[in-house]
Design brief:
Helix content: 25-40%
Distance between the termini: 70 Å
CATH architecture of the largest domain: Sandwich
Mean pLDDT: 86
Number of helices: 7
CATH superfamily of the largest domain: Immunoglobulins
Radius of gyration: 31 Å
Strand content: 35-45%
Strand order of the largest sheet: 2-8-7-4-5
CATH topology of the largest domain: Immunoglobulin-like
Low-confidence stretches: 182-202, 233-238
Number of domains: 3
CATH class of the largest domain: Mainly Beta
Order of helices and strands: HHEEEEEEEEHEHEEHEEHHEE
Structural class: alpha+beta
Largest sheet: 5 strands, mixed
C-alpha cells in the first residue's frame, strides 16, 4: 500500500512537471522530466542487482571465557552483518528473523531494518533477553530489499543461523543439609586430593598409553626414571550424587528445576566439594553423568542437558536409579511437583 501511494504521488509530480514544460518550454523542466522518468527504472535495477549479490551473516557474541554463554534474564547479543560488493545501496532492507528456545520450544518472529552500504559491510548489534535457560537459536530465512525510491521490494531467501547458550540465573543461596551430604562431600574432597578422580589408590604401576596425566605419580616417576601411575579403585558407592529431573509439564516447572539445581550445585562447588551431576536421557535410555569440580564443568553439563528431551513424570530419572546404578547408595534428587521445587536425599534401593 505504501508503494502504491508513493507511486501515485510521484506520477502526480511528474504530470505537474510535464505541464510546466508544455507551457514554459524550459530546458530545465525538460531535463527534470527526463530524470524523473529514468530514475525509477535505475532505482529498481540497482535493487535487483543488490538482491543477487548481497550476503548476510549472523554470529553470537563470545564471552570472556571464549564461550557463547549468557545468563538468564541478562542481555545477550547477536551480530547481524550485511555484506555488499556492489557500488549500489539500499536505505531500507528488512531482515526477517526467527528466534526460538530449542529446549523449551518457545519462540517467535522478529523484523529488523538496516541499510546496505556501498562496497562494504554493515554490522548491527542485536540484543536479546532470554527469560528461560536453554539454547536460543536465531535463524534468518529471508531479507527484503526496497529500491531507493521505494517503489518495489525484492525478497531474497537466505540461510544464516547462530545460537547462544543461556545458563540459569543464580537465585540466591540454599541452606542445604551439610550433615546429610557429609559422607559424600568428604569422599569427594579426598578423591580430589589424590588425583581428581572418584576413587582411592589401590596400587602403583607403570604408565600405559591412554592413562590420565593426573594419575601420574611424579615423585616416584622421577626416582625410577620411568612414568608410574596410581591405579585407583572405584568408590562410586560413596560419591556425592545430584540427580536432576528434566520434567516439564509447564515451562515454569522446568525453569524452577534448572535454576534451583544450577544455584545449589554452583554453591556446593564454591564450597570446595566435588560432586557428580546426573540426568536421565529418554532417547538413549541411560544416565548422563558429569563430574563437577569447577563452574565451567557445571556450564558444560547444563549445555548437555539442553540437547535432551524432557518428560512429564516428576520422578522419571529416579525410577531407574536402583536398576541402572545399584552401586550408588544415596543421592540428592532435584525435581518439582509443578508448584514447588523439591530437593530430597534419596536412599537407592
Amino acid at each position: 500500500m505504501e508503494s502504491i501511494i508513493r507511486l501515485i504521488i510521484y506520477t502526480i509530480l511528474l504530470g505537474i512537471n510535464g505541464i510546466m514544460y508544455y507551457f514554459l518550454h524550459s530546458h530545465f523542466y525538460f531535463m527534470l522530466m527526463v530524470i524523473m522518468i529514468v530514475s525509477p527504472f535505475a532505482s529498481i535495477i540497482m535493487a535487483f542487482i543488490l538482491r543477487k549479490f548481497v550476503q548476510i551473516e549472523i554470529s553470537a557474541a563470545i564471552n570472556s571465557t571464549g564461550k557463547e554463554y549468557a545468563k538468564q534474564n541478562d542481555r545477550a547479543y547477536f551480530f547481524v552483518k550485511l555484506l555488499n560488493k556492489t557500488p549500489f545501496i539500499s536505505l531500507d532492507t528488512v531482515v526477517y528473523m526467527n528466534i526460538k528456545n530449542t529446549f523449551f520450544g518457545t519462540g517467535g518472529n522478529h523484523k529488523m531494518s538496516m541499510p546496505i552500504r556501498m562496497l562494504s559491510e554493515n554490522k548491527v548489534e542485536f540484543p536479546i533477553v532470554a527469560t528461560l535457560p536453554g539454547i536460543v537459536q536465531v535463524s534468518i530465512e529471508k531479507i527484503s530489499i526496497k529500491d531507493l525510491m521505494g517503489f518495489v521490494k525484492f525478497n531474497k531467501k537466505v540461510s544464516a543461523e547462530s545460537e547462544i547458550t543461556i545458563m540459569p540465573e543464580i537465585i540466591g543461596e540454599y541452606n542445604y543439609d551439610k550433615v546429610s551430604l557429609e559422607q559424600g562431600s568428604l569422599e569427594s574432597e579426598e578423591s580430589s586430593k589424590k588425583g581428581n578422580d572418584f576413587s582411592d589408590v589401590q596400587e602403583i604401576r607403570e604408565y600405559i598409553p591412554g592413562d590420565k596425566l593426573m594419575s601420574i605419580h611424579w615423585k616416584l616417576s622421577a626416582k625410577r626414571d620411568i612414568l608410574m601411575v596410581k591405579d585407583r579403585a572405584s568408590m562410586s558407592d560413596r560419591q556425592l550424587v545430584v540427580l536432576v529431573e528434566l520434567v516439564k509439564n509447564t515451562s515454569a516447572q522446568l525453569n524452577m528445576i534448572l535454576t534451583s539445581a544450577y544455584t545449589l550445585v554452583n554453591q556446593i562447588v564454591n564450597d570446595g566439594t566435588t560432586i557428580r551431576l546426573m540426568f536421565w536421557s529418554t532417547e538413549r535410555y541411560e544416565y548422563e553423568t558429569t563430574r563437577i569440580d569447577y563452574k565451567a564443568d557445571l556450564d558444560n553439563a547444563f549445555e548437555k542437558i539442553y540437547y535432551e528431551k524432557t518428560y512429564t513424570d516428576m520422578e522419571e530419572g529416579a525410577s531407574h536409579m536402583s536398576s541402572v546404578h545399584p552401586e550408588i547408595k544415596s543421592y540428592l534428587l532435584i525435581t518439582s511437583d509443578g508448584n514447588n521445587c523439591l530437593m530430597n536425599i534419596r536412599e537407592n534401593g
